[in-house]
Design goal:
Elements lengths: L2 H11 L2 E4 L27 E7 L2 E7 L9 E8 L7 E9 L6 E6 L10 E8 L2 E2 L3 E4 L11 E6 L10 H7 L5 E4 L32 H13 L1 H9 L2 E3 L21 H4 L2 H14 L20 E5 L3 E5 L16 E3 L15 H13 L4 E6 L7 E2 L1 H7 L10 E4 L7 H13 L5 E5 L5 E7 L15 E7 L19 H11 L3 E5 L3 E8 L3 E9 L9 E10 L6 E2 L3
Parallel strand pairs: 10-11, 11-12, 14-16, 16-19, 19-21
Antiparallel strand pairs: 1-5, 2-3, 3-6, 4-5, 4-7, 7-8, 7-9, 10-23, 13-14, 15-18, 17-18, 20-21, 20-22, 23-24, 24-25, 25-26
Helix pairs in contact: 2-4, 3-6
Bound molecules: fe (ii) ion (FE2).
Length: about 550
């Protein structure tokens, strides 16, 4: 975002910021709290922080004034202690019904905020205080950093279970959370993948969100969840969307809700989905309703974390070409369009930006925050037919889904070749979307021969895919071959020897701990999502040494 956009936004939000607690005396009453306890009636979705920088962050809340539906002035404080004894910043912002009473304060280049430091914040309205939130700023881009800890996650389907994973993640020792998308699901009862454990009724009464009110209601209901409230209060988020913030397998302005692409083109629905995302996501991203959907918002961006990590977050929905071989992307044999070099996942502008960020970064680790898996996910005809599964023979290899990078293989090859030509080292991709824990190697040619568990000679990087928070995995969804999860796992693992690990039978999140010498990836699973009282355990741990395309299983 450029300076002009930032100023425009600040004016639109009416935000004013003062160092310390030196606010003009006329505004002092806005900073007086009548009660010590947080008021969830005034601040029903609590608070959240996002897009931490060395001297900045975005603070978020939703504040319901007594005077509804009029506008109101909300105040906020940032302190170096949880009791607000030392206030480092104070400010005010406007809220009103046009933004559904959300408040987003973008703090940028504030010298009062020190790098790599923990802060606490709260909002005040009508004498009532929000819960206290906490965030940690990033180290400065030029700092020498010895460790960065963060979590990545995706796919929290409220209707499909309880968010215990969020509760456990709140207590992890991390600097921030990376959310790779599917923060909400636009459908509220799709029987093939939603078990209706926690039912939602949309304002429209429809089975999927269509209007601005529907999308806003989803964020309100999700953010009301006590486990998610706690996590958002505790850590700053770096968030991108995937498809379900708008519609299943979305591309550009299109959903895939019918078999007719013309009917699926829905600029208004795409636009309101983007608007609700911008209103409710603590991210330093603006939404401009006067522009067409593909220009109204830009969510791709990067984060420089000292000299240690370049974190590059991409958008794989808004600019991608249409599905390659028709709208049915699941269990598809593919077609010539898959390798058509004119097709794109990132769009030309984002692809140039992405390659520039990754290939020119001076930082030790280049981490790609990626929505859909880059590694090939095939079901091999030879493996399946050789396995002698009763009633199952395949006439051809099938791709599990062409919605992921397998449907955009020409651009994937272009990116991987560019990484190899530029001799990019320590390239690590973190991915959501698949509701499956996977660890594996990104190859220049995924169909080249490879012995099981071997490290491919043409590997350009490692990819870790996190299981879902609650969204249904392979074990929980029906499959057309009626395979049980163990058979599916065996067939998929054997069909994709670049995988070192594959588990689609559980839920949880993934931790990354980076030092100058190694990257440790720890996948954690919850014992259940269908009951609220889950337990947590380590599922798998991998070590990636600096300088090698290698993952070592170090699970205790
Ligand atoms: Fe998902």
């Amino acid at each position: 975002m450029d300076r002009r956009t930032f100023l425009t936004y600040s004016l639109a939000g009416g935000a004013m910021v003062w160092a310390g607690s030196a606010v003009p005396s006329a505004l002092q009453p806005l900073f007086e709290a009548q009660a010590q306890t947080a008021n969830l009636e005034v601040f029903p979705q609590s608070v959240g922080a996002g897009d931490p920088r060395a001297n900045g962050v975005v603070l978020w809340t939703r504040a319901l004034p007594r005077t509804r539906p009029s506008a109101a002035t909300v105040s906020f404080q940032v302190a170096s202690d949880a009791n607000f004894g030392t206030i480092v910043l104070s400010g005010t912002a406007q809220t009103d019904p046009t933004r559904d009473y959300t408040v987003k304060v973008q703090l940028r280049d504030r010298p009062e905020l020190r790098p790599a430091t923990v802060y606490f914040y709260r909002f005040l309205l009508d004498g009532q205080s929000s819960p206290v939130g906490r965030f940690k700023t990033l180290p400065a881009p030029g700092d020498t950093v010895n460790r960065v800890n963060f979590a990545f996650l995706s796919c929290s389907d409220y209707t499909n279970g309880f968010f215990s994973a969020f509760r456990f993640l709140a207590d992890e020792d991390i600097d921030f959370v990376v959310h790779l998308g599917d923060a909400i699901y636009e459908t509220v009862f799709a029987p093939t993948f939603q078990n209706n454990r926690r039912p939602i009724e949309l304002p429209s009464g429809l089975a999927s969100a269509q209007s601005l009110e529907d999308y806003r209601a989803l964020y309100q209901i999700y953010y009301n969840d006590p486990d998610l409230r706690r996590l958002r209060e505790r850590h700053a988020f770096i968030t991108i969307w995937d498809d379900h913030e708008y519609a299943n397998d979305a591309y550009q302005e299109f959903n895939t809700d019918t078999n007719n692409p013309a009917q699926n083109r829905s600029p208004n629905r795409r636009q309101v989905a983007s608007q609700a995302w911008a209103e409710y996501t603590a991210a330093a991203i603006d939404f401009d309703p006067s522009r067409a959907p593909l220009d109204a918002i830009q969510i791709y961006r990067s984060f420089e974390i000292g000299n240690l990590v370049e974190l590059v977050m991409t958008d794989e929905r808004l600019y991608r070409s249409a599905p390659p071989c028709g709208l049915n992307t699941a269990l598809a044999p593919g077609c010539a369009a898959v390798v058509d070099p004119s097709r794109t996942m990132l769009g030309a502008t984002q692809r140039r930006w992405f390659l520039d960020k990754i290939t020119r970064s001076p930082r030790t680790w280049k981490i790609w925050g990626n929505e859909v898996m880059t590694m090939q996910l095939k079901i091999s005809r030879a493996i399946v037919n050789g396995a002698g599964v009763p009633g199952l023979t395949l006439p051809a290899d099938l791709f599990a889904t062409l919605d992921q990078w397998d449907g955009y293989a020409a651009e994937r090859t272009e990116i991987f070749n560019a990484l190899r030509s530029a001799n990019v080292r320590n390239f690590v991709t973190i991915t959501g979307d698949l509701h499956t824990f996977i660890a594996g190697y990104q190859r220049l040619n995924f169909d080249g021969p490879l012995a099981p568990r071997a490290v491919p000679a043409d590997a350009v990087g490692v990819e870790f895919v996190t299981g879902s928070i609650t969204a249904s995995n392979l074990a929980e969804q029906p499959n057309p071959f009626n395979l049980d999860i163990n058979t599916s796992t065996q067939l998929l693992s054997a069909s994709n020897p670049h995988f070192q690990f594959f588990n689609s039978n559980t839920h949880g999140y993934t931790l990354i701990s980076v030092t100058p010498s190694e990257l440790i990836c720890t996948m954690k699973e919850v014992s259940t999502v269908t009951e609220p009282n889950a337990t947590l355990r380590v599922l798998k741990t991998y070590r990636v040494p600096n300088g090698q395309v290698l993952m070592q299983d170090i699970t205790a």
